Amino acid sequence: MAACLCYNSQSNKVYYLRGGVTVIDGAGDTAITALPVSGHALCYNPQDNKVYCSNLDHDLTVISGETNRVIDTVLAGSLSNILCYNSRNDRVYFVSCGSGKVAAIDGVTDEVIATLDTEGWPRAVCCNPQNDKVYCADDTLDEVTVIDGVANRVIKSVTTGARPRALCYNPRHNSVYCAKRV
């Protein structure tokens, strides 16, 4: 079981995912509460002060950053395990590795507003808020799928070769970097 962390800058809390979500007070480094959420990845939405936890049972748990309680569950896909937040449009992107689908979730309502098909098995996702694009690395097709964050549609695929596995956005140079498995 993998562990995952994310930081809530508004309330100085750390969320630790491993067999549940533990909320840690960043000032005192003490556990505040534990939530019985069985997930795989975490993502923080600073605009709405929410933490999202992708669950392996096809849904997404939404946690209030203010109360540290589960406030919603969103049915978003299958075999989910990766998330990213796009501050440009206040959306969370939920990638279903088992189906090759990406769900765009509204950060205010926590509703799925679009479901996109990447035609493969994405393994990584990142957002470029400057250009309002989402990138999904697919190691079975050796490509990165580019999604328009405004229209929520796939706009192109970029061939990378050698099984792309990780993505990172550099805001200083407005570039997305892709690590490949060799």
Textual characterization of the structure:
By secondary structure, the chain is mainly β. It is 0% helix and 60% strand. The protein contains no helices and 18 strands. Strands 1-2-3-4 form a four-stranded antiparallel β-sheet, with no helix packed on it. Strands 5-6-7-8 form a four-stranded antiparallel β-sheet, with no helix packed on it. It is globular and about 45 Å long.
Describe the SSE topology:
Elements: E1 4-8, E2 13-17, E3 21-25, E4 30-35, E5 39-45, E6 50-55, E7 59-64, E8 70-75, E9 80-86, E10 91-96, E11 101-106, E12 112-117, E13 122-128, E14 133-138, E15 143-148, E16 153-159, E17 164-170, E18 175-180
Antiparallel strand pairs: 1-2, 2-3, 3-4, 5-6, 6-7, 7-8, 9-10, 10-11, 11-12, 13-14, 14-15, 15-16, 17-18
DSSP helical segment count: 0
How helical, in percent, are the residues? under 10%
Q: How does the helix and strand content classify structurally?
A: mainly beta
Could you spell the SSE succession in H and E letters? Answer: EEEEEEEEEEEEEEEEEE
First and last CA, distance: 24 Å
Mean pLDDT, as a whole number?
89
Low-confidence blocks of residues: none
Cα radius of gyration in angstroms: 16 Å
Number of E strands: 18
General shape:
globular
How do the strands of the widest beta sheet line up side by side? 1-2-3-4
Described by strand count, sense and barrel closure, the largest sheet is: 4 strands, antiparallel
Strand residues, percent? over 45%
